[in-house]
Amino acid sequence: MEGRTRNRPAAVPPTEGARPTLKTIAFMTGLGITTVSRALKDAPDIGAETKERVRLVAKQIGYQPNRAGVRLRTGKTNVISLVLTLEEEIMGITSPMVIGITEILAGTPYHLVVTPYSSSKDPLGPIRYILDTGAADGVIISRMEPNDPRVTLLTERQFPFATHGRTEMGIVHPYHDFDNGRFAYEAVRKLVERGRRRLVLLEPPPHLTFHSHMRTGFEGGLKDFGAESVSFHQVNIDYSLVAIRDAFEKLMGSSDAPDGIVSGSGSGAIALIAGVEAARKKLGEEADMVSKVPSDFLRWLRPEVMTMYEDIRIAGRELAKAVIGRIEGQPPETLQSLSQPEFQPPMQRLIKGRE
Q: How far apart are CA 6 and CA 26, in angstroms?
């Protein structure tokens, strides 16, 4: 019955260059539009051979369902919205996260829409827009605060979401996070192993949850490994690179200069290095550095820096799986993950070891 032609209008060849539609697939397969539509929906009364033929043609011509039509029929948008701040773009987070998310969405009906905003604006603005307009089926948010109003609003509206980072507000929700406490603790260990005792931390802004995680790990390392902290609160990783460089040049030129540096940001580490050199000191001699990084760029540019890798691409994959799981009704406590820092020795040592 599925291949009958008596109920099918005469096939009309698609217009060249036009967006592929169900009519395009019907013309190319010789099937009716209704049959094509039901085959793509995996209807039980359509044969497996027909379904495979329709899917193959749809893939070859790049067919995508019309979102407006899908929304009218199902009430769904098949859209996941990633809400990111401009600061995350500067820190090099956006691209690998988008890649990770799209790798997971590629096998689903969902599409990714990136919604950027400035942290100086109301952080609830993009969330209210998505909720009020029904612009997405799920949302991924980041730069989490201990008591985050976005989490409160999304939970109250029972809207599927996942967070890049954790909260401390007693609401169980899906998240993926990097263990910043472990990063800072292990960074102190590495510096002390090199004989450094006066350590400084370029930390996240105080209003974000991972500030307390990183600070706790840093202070725990100081206590356990017998080092002391050099105060450096004038700037944080959200400040401009110029501001970080200038503040660190002043510190390195003072009598209170540290001999060990922990950077909570790869881009911030570049500014710290510039500050060290502006103070006429040399990294690897007067001071050593451990930095968190999202890529190998810092190691290529400054191989003397010890780095700990945060895989943002993996974060994107885990967040995509979490928000889809929530859309499908999985319990939020089963959609939580935490990645660990991967220590990368200085590249110059690796080269020497091969000689």
A: 14
**Domain at 103, CATH number:** 3.40.50.2300
Residues 6+ apart with CB under 8 A from 29: 36, 53, 54, 57
pTM for this predicted structure: 0.77
Helices (H), 138-240: 149-156, 180-193, 209-225
- Domain identity same for 115 and 259: no
Is 12:23 a contact under the CB 8 Å cutoff?
A: yes
Domain-embedded: residue 69: no
What string of DSSP letters covers 282-312?
-BTTTBEEEEEESSSHHHHH-TTSEEEE--H
Show the domain range for 325. Answer: 76-178+313-339
Q: Specify the 3-state DSSP secondary structure of 177.
A: strand
pLDDT along the chain (355 residues), means of 10: 46 59 85 85 85 86 64 70 74 80 92 82 88 92 96 97 97 98 98 98 97 98 98 94 97 97 95 97 95 87 92 96 97 97 70 41
d(CA 172, CA 47): 44
CATH number at residue 45: 1.10.260
